[in-house]
Amino acid sequence: MRVLQEYPDPVSIGSTINNAKGLDLFINIYSVSMRRLYRLCLSHALLLLISLFLGFAATTVSPATEKEILLQFKGNISNDPYNSLANWVPSSNPCNYNGVFCNPLGFVERIVFWNTSLSGVLSPALSGLRSLRILTLFGNQFTGNIPQEYAELSTLWKINLSSNALSGSIPEFIGDLQSIRFLDLSRNGYTGEIPFALFKFCYKTKFVSFSHNSLSGSVPASIANCTHLEGFDFSFNNLSGQLPSGICDVPVLDNMFTGPAPFGILGLQNLSYFNLSHNGFQGGIPEVRTCSESLKFFDASSNELDGEIPLGITNCKSLEFIDLGFNRLNGSIPVGIANLERLLVFKLGNNSIEGTIPREFGSIELLLLLDLHNLNLAGEIPKDISNCRFLRELDVSGNALDGEIPNTLDNLTSLEVLDLHRNQLDGGIPETLGSLSNLKLLDLSQNNLSGTIPFSLGNLANLKFFNVSSNNLSGPIPSIPKIQAFGAAAFLNNSRLCGTPLDISCSGGGNGTGNKSKKNKVLSNSVIVAIVAASLILTGVCVVSIMNIRARSRKKDDVTTVVESTPLGSTDSNVIIGKLVLFSKTLPSKYEDWEAGTKALLDKECLIGGGSIGTVYRTTFEGGVCIAVKKLETLGRIRSQDEFEQEIGRLGNLRHPNLVAFQGYYWSSTMQLILSEFIPNANEVVVLCEYVRGLLETGSASDCFDRSLRGFSENELIQVMKLGLICTSEVPSRRPSMAEVVQVLESIRSGVESS
């Protein structure tokens, strides 16, 4: 604006042109003006370039200097049990250091070490990495605190120092890092209060976690500055007082918050997760007049809330999870619960709710869990519940329900838990319950059930808990080992029930011909049952004997070879002793062959690929036998041979035509290997991935979905499938990190289309 004011304005220029005598004057003025303007612009451009150059030179360091910074970081490490920093040497390019990632210009952008048990203190020298964006040191043993010098890391947007041994107060200077989006200091030893200044410039922050520390005081009101906050976790601290009214997400588990709960934020537009469970909030839940269209999770359990459940909660049609259990709520279950068509979990147990179980629950087709235990409900169990074909858990115990158990519950083919105990149910136990093949818990105790125990319950192969005690059942307990194995306690207090495992004989006495004929009939049936049972037992013994004989005859050619105390890949005096187990006769069992074969573990030319849990090599023995060897990076997660072999046992039980054959394993205290079939060029993997890509391109991706996933959002499943294809990329560098995978999954869960 100052430049333009030095020259004639357009109006005066126009009037000069209209005057023929002033034409020469205008041309001279215009020429002079353009020359001055050109010189001025050129000088401004030169000054701008010089300032940019000086600024760049002042704020960046060379890659060589960054190498020195990283080596200073290594110098502060007192223990590196897994040699995670072994290749951090002066002669190497720092961009090739383990756990270091550089940007295209060659400057350090990320430092990532997960569960590597590094010990020491954080080096202040890292403040010199002016391009550092991500610092992730999760699951290590760093002590002390975050150095004050890190306040200079203005580009830092993610800090994850969780699960370490850091202590002291949470540094206030973190609040000056305006690019921070993710801050996780959970599972450390931080004490004191959460600094007010920590949330001074948190406009970009999306997630904060200080859980599992020893923080005290209250949550600072400045957290309301975090306008883009999607969630925070301050659980398992000693926080107290009331929550600020301006926060958007409230995952504040297991603290001591009291007073009214901040239900007023339920209408916030971006709210998707609302959790104030395990606190001391009091008062009632106000009427929900507006509800976020994104709200999916609502948990206010384990507080001291009272009053009725507001009817307006049924207008939150995006809700998938509701837990109001363990409060003092009264009234009845809201009418219109069927409006929550996306509801997966509804938990209301341990309250003073009265009334009946609404039939409308049967309209919520996707319902997975219905928990109404320890309420004051009466009436019958509605048959409409049988329409919830995906239901896995139904718990209505501890009420005053009466009537018969619906004989339509066999429609609940996914049911795993059926708990009806401590009610007033009568009638018999439906035969149809025997078709619930996934049932793991069946508790019908403390009711008024009569009749016999159906033999069909013996079909429940997955049953882990069974109880029909304290009823009016009669007749013999089915002679089925699966049922009798639950012991006498499962059948007590049924006066007319007899047989094993109760110490009550089922043989009856009496006089008269009628009784004798009845006794003879029972006796003859018993004889028949005994004969059949004896025949089955004899047949089983014969089959087992034949199998044992055949097994002994093949023992010399057994495909499993165990080589104890086998030293692998070492010939010095400090040899590592291990155990080698082979499941294939084609593999050599001599130590010399394996000593030569394991040299592949040191040969980069034999490297096939790698991942977060290990590296895969190709090993070839004499005779052309070729296998794939995965060298595991357990990082201390598996600490004993028994634990390792249990995991191997689970792998060995996996059966699928697209899984490579499992051929053995090796265990020692310092090295664990998995041996499997080698597939040249990973043909099966390529074919499978191409097959899935083809289905995605033709719009037939749903053909790949497991049938058990029916009912879930197809769009979300397709996005997860796309993520899986990226994670299985043939080029390891193209595969996303675990942190990136988690972020993508979070965005999918939030309904945001991932790119």
UniProtKB/TrEMBL annotation:
The keyword Signal does not apply. It is an enzyme of class 2 (transferase). InterPro entries: Kinase-like_dom_sf, Leu-rich_rpt, LRR_dom_sf, LRR_N_plant-typ, Prot_kinase_dom, Ser-Thr/Tyr_kinase_cat_dom, Ser_Thr_Kinases_DiverseReg. It is a single-pass membrane protein. GO terms for cellular component: membrane. Its EC number is 2.7.11.1. It is found in: Membrane. It holds the Pfam family PK_Tyr_Ser-Thr. One of its GO terms (molecular function) is protein serine/threonine kinase activity. Keywords: ATP-binding, Kinase, Leucine-rich repeat, Membrane, Nucleotide-binding, Repeat, Serine/threonine-protein kinase, Transferase, Transmembrane, Transmembrane helix. The chain crosses the membrane at residues 37-58, 527-547. It catalyses: L-threonyl-[protein] + ATP = O-phospho-L-threonyl-[protein] + ADP + H(+); L-seryl-[protein] + ATP = O-phospho-L-seryl-[protein] + ADP + H(+). Residues 602-755 form the Protein kinase domain. This is non-specific serine/threonine protein kinase.
